[in-house]
Design a protein that fits this description.
Elements (H helix, E strand, L loop, with lengths): L1 E2 L3 E2 L2 H21 L4 H21 L2 H21 L1 H12 L2 H7 L5 H17 L3 E5 L6 H4 L3 E6 L2 H7 L10 E5 L2 E7 L15 H12 L3 E5 L6 E5 L2 E4 L3 H12 L15
Parallel strand pairs: 3-5
Antiparallel strand pairs: 1-2, 3-7, 4-6, 5-6, 7-8, 8-9
Length: about 260
C-alpha cells in the first residue's frame, strides 16, 4: 500500500504506529502532573530537530547530533529515573504478567496465611482476609489503604492488631501480595444469616455474593475460623480444614459449601 502514492506503507508499519502511539499515551498518563512532562516535551522537540537535520542533510548539525547521541540515553535515564521506576512498578503489577511470573505452587501463600490465622484465632484478634480470584476487586481495593506488600504472616498479624490504624475493614490479597488493607466490603442483607454472625462475617458473605472471591474470617469474640465463598459461610474450621479449602480456592477448584451459614460441627 502506498501512502498518497509516494511512500509505501505495510500493514506492520500501521501496527507499529498504533503501538508507538499507545506507548507514548501510557507514558504521558503515567507522568502527567510531574516535571517530567515538560522535560519529555523538550526531548521530543530535540528529536524532531534531529529528524529535520537528517532529512535536509545538514552535515555540521549531523555531526553534532551524532556526537551527542550516546549522551541522550544516559541523560534520559538520569532525568526520568523516577518515572522509569514508576513505569516498571506498574508493569510488574500487571495481572497477566504477575500470573506469568508467579509460580503455580501456592504453598508459601497458604503457609503464611495459616500461620497468621492460627495466631489471630488464639489471640481472638478479629480478621477479614479476602483472596482475589478471577473477578476484579479494584473498586474495593480503592476504598482502603494501598499496601502492595509481599504476604507475610507477621504483617497480617500486625495489620489486624486491635491498636493498628489499619485493623478495621478487610485485607485484599492477590497472588502473594497484600494489595490493600482497611477495605470496605458490601454487607449481606440475607435474613438467613444467624445471630452469631456479626458485621465482619456479613461483609465476607456480601462480597462473595457479588464476586468469586474467597474470604477467611476470624471472630473477635470467639476466635472461631470461618470461610465464605459463593455467598455461603462455613464456620468452626480447624487449620487443617482451612488449608484444604484455601488450597482448593487458590487452585480455582470450588469446594462444596455443604449448607448455608451453618457452623461446622
Amino acid at each position: 500500500m502506498n501512502l498518497f502514492g509516494v511512500v509505501p506503507v505495510r500493514a506492520i508499519d500501521l501496527f507499529e504506529i498504533v503501538l508507538v502511539a499507545v506507548v507514548f499515551y501510557r507514558l504521558y498518563m503515567t507522568m502527567r502532573g510531574t516535571l517530567a512532562v515538560s522535560l519529555f516535551a523538550g526531548l521530543i522537540g530535540l528529536l524532531l530537530v534531529q529528524f529535520v537535520v537528517e532529512v535536509t542533510d545538514m552535515k555540521i548539525l549531523q555531526s553534532m547530533f551524532a556526537a551527542l547521541s550516546d549522551i541522550y540515553v544516559i541523560a534520559a535515564i538520569i532525568v526520568f529515573q523516577p518515572e522509569i521506576r514508576r513505569v516498571l512498578i506498574l508493569l510488574g503489577q500487571t495481572p497477566w504478567l504477575r500470573r506469568l511470573l508467579t509460580s503455580g505452587d501456592q504453598s508459601e501463600i497458604i503457609t503464611e496465611t495459616l500461620t497468621a490465622v492460627g495466631t489471630m484465632s488464639r489471640r481472638k484478634s478479629g480478621a477479614l482476609v479476602v483472596f482475589k480470584r478471577r473477578n476484579g476487586l479494584r473498586s474495593y481495593v480503592e476504598t482502603g489503604e494501598s499496601l502492595q506488600a509481599v504476604l507475610r504472616s507477621n504483617l497480617l498479624i500486625s495489620i489486624f492488631h486491635e491498636k493498628s490504624p489499619l485493623h478495621d475493614g478487610a485485607v485484599i490479597i492477590y497472588g502473594n501480595r497484600i494489595e490493600a488493607s482497611r477495605c470496605i466490603l458490601p454487607v449481606s442483607r440475607s435474613k438467613r444469616l444467624g445471630a452469631q454472625f456479626g458485621t465482619r462475617h456479613r461483609a465476607a458473605v456480601g462480597l462473595t455474593e457479588e464476586t468469586d472471591a474467597f474470604v477467611v474470617v476470624v471472630s473477635e469474640e470467639t476466635g472461631r475460623i470461618s470461610v465464605a465463598e459463593q455467598g455461603v459461610i462455613i464456620s468452626g474450621l480447624t487449620l487443617d480444614e482451612l488449608r484444604h479449602r484455601l488450597s482448593d480456592a487458590l487452585s480455582d477448584h470450588a469446594v462444596p459449601a455443604g449448607g448455608f451459614t451453618q457452623p461446622k460441627k
